[in-house]
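Dissemination and training. As part of the outreach component of the grant, students in the summer workshop were shown how a complex can be specified as a set of sequence lines and then modelled as a single object. The example used during the hands-on session is reproduced here so that future cohorts can follow it. Participants entered these lines:
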Amino acid sequence: MITINEYGARTSAALRRFSRSTTTTLLCVTLGGYLALGIASSGEFFQGPSVRTFLQYLATPVLIGLAQMVALCVGQLNLAVGALGGCTACLMGVLMADGGVPAPIAVAAGVLTAMLVGLVTGVFIVATRINGFIVTLGVMTILLGAQYRLAGTRTVDGYSPALKELGRAAPLNVPLVFLTALAVAGLLAVFLYRATAGRRLLAAGGNPLAARLSGISTDRQIVLAHTLSGLLVGVAAVTATASLPGVNRSVGGDWLLPSFAAPIIGGVGLSGGSVAVFGTVLAAFVMRLIDAARAQFSLDPSWVNFLIGLVVLGTVVGGRVHQTHLEKRGKAHGRTPPAPAGRGPTADATLPNAGGGQ
Amino acid sequence: MNDVLLEGREIVKVFPGVRALDGVGLRLTAGSVHALLGENGAGKSTLIKVLTGVHAPDGGRLTWRGEEVRLRSPLEATRTGIGVVHQERNLIPDFSVAENITLQSPPARRGFVDRGAMSAPALRCLAELDLDLDPLRPVRELSVAQQQLVEIAKALYTESRVLLLDEPTASLSPREADRLFGVVRRLTARGTCVVFVSHKLEEVFALCDTVTVLRDGRSVLESSPLAGHTHDDIVNLMVGRAHTATEMPPRAPDRTAAPVLALDGVSTADGHQDVSLEVRPGEIVGLYGLVGAGRSELVKAVLGLDRITAGEVRMHGTPVRIASPRQALHDFGIGYLTENRKEEGVFLEQPIHRNITVTVWKKLAKALGYVPAAEERQAAQDLVDRLGIRISGLEQNAGELSGGNQQKVSMAKWLAADTRLLIVDEPTVGVDVRTKHAFHRLLWELAGEGLPILLISSDLTEMITLADRVLVMADHRIRGEVDNDGDYERMSGRIIRIIHDRALPAVTTEREAE
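and obtained this result:
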């Protein structure tokens, strides 16, 4: 009886926490926006082909948002997201089209290369103690050069039809690339929330000193975060190569800012220690919705950037206000010790219900 | 019960410019509570960090149950059986209570954290402390006191034979502290040794069996039974007698002059209550207190960096509202020499002359904000000579100077602005003795010329060397005032008693309440 009561109280506390989170807000915004768009287009937006196009171009933003999120969660940032993605896409295209390498091998080589670049970046940051901003800025420039060297001014499109076929495949109008992105997000969530290695990553980001005192090497976590970030960019490059008609030097050029926007709107702090996989995915959804709305109402493209900029600033300001609010409450608590946690009126109100269930 | 668990002999730890520990010894025996006492900066926290593998000692021996050990990391110390609650917050804000408690060795299966298995040990540790907390709550949502208790629960989880608690009661209410003492007694009954660091002597005498006292990085009393000492003995040992006051020319401020700055019943948003003080021309007023007493915060509120919620600030007798440090400087001539000189006091990447004249650019500037270089250099050179700042040239970057000289540059900045009141916050933290003396002499001379100075310091020697009156602050209130008679022993005794007396009434009210 007692355990069930406690369990009920705890579940409701967890639910309450969730209902107040950024993710819930985003979920409402996404659903509301989707419905509004659907109604405004008199139902056309709910139909197969529209859904399919909508999701097709959502895969890459989701993946690059996650790649940036992994870097942010240890308090780093990765400016090379776009350049690495573009370079990897061109590498795969050139390998297949010019080198005649079979698609599976080219894809594997591309993903591994991206991961390796992430690993080297991380090791470089840890070894030299140079700020990650500068290092990834350097890596970005190097990769942009490499991408230009690989693709030149042409568009490489004569690569594996099978890969392109996969990229366009959409059973039940849900594109495979989108499913891939969702699967990656799921795996990443399991890794970050459940795996010991993922928890160490977050501990090092949340309070580096405390992590060190608990025997966690923060250096290793920084290397791991950059490697993981590189791996995710590699997967994003694969989805881009598969769904685009061809790759050229402009691939990845417009990835960097959305890669920051998604996690920040999704509720990830820039100072490290917090992640929101679902939130990041939803934020990518919201940005895609804005883009879809522009197409729907034939608005000026500049509106998209304008709106995304507003949303980013709004989220950050909102988070700031919320934080100050929490701090004030914490201070008040510090002066007069408060009633123990989870015993608020709401928790009490749910207790009889939980007992009644028995 | 008399087996020695951990013993340290002649431990030395050197930081750049400071011998933080200089031959410290202590012996920790099973089943006892050992007090580690000393003034601010005596080396208590450093010793704890050496004993727990955070800092590697530069000399001396550590033995664990008779065998020599070398603790290379905090993890090694934990594995040996040494647990600790540091003075700093060491929780991961976004993790749950349970996960923080089990952070050092989370229950896991095949690389995945087992959250189900996490709650049980966490609840057991929380129950030891009589703490009713949801183990799934993120610690970010907890109050400061609750977080402190979670840290103690975290130390209990590792089941250490030696448990070091660095100021564990600083943010606890008397009731919570009592609970903690219950846990400490239970642990020692099981054969654990608990090392207890506290500024509250009443707690120490109520709880501890043996005591080690540190002073200036040396152990002046080593693992001695506490029963053989009185409060006064311990205070005298902490403070020491062998303090040579710097010889200064006499200076007699006019006690009847009208105060330059006066606070009357000031309360702030940060939590200060009913603070009143006066600073007269040519007077050095000391503001002494332990770290966290709210001294710097008070000054920042006066300068407009935090909100004053009640009371009055008067400059030369006129009530004023200062909105910003900029207004404080330009309208009222208040110079503030910050505690944090690397981050707030000087522009490290800028040449010295620019650092000094930044406060007077407005005065030097001609049309369109052009500052003539020659005049700027002249103004700077005058002050460099006057303060005896050792530099290779005015073009040198401030970041290349030693700590003491940086502090002087920071001071020159305010003197250039023709300051009429100087607020100095921890002026000599981290500088060597010679610079310290030079700096003391400088402040003394400035006061002698009639400049009123408000001095914030945690260094008691400095207070007694410089201040005419010492206001003692604790817990965001002024607790008492002591007129400085220059006698170190008498003064330090009085000041420390004002601080320590606080613990007593708090405990009695608690008892009355029950």
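Residues 332-358 of chain A have pLDDT under 50 and may be disordered. Students were then asked to discuss how this feature might be tested experimentally.
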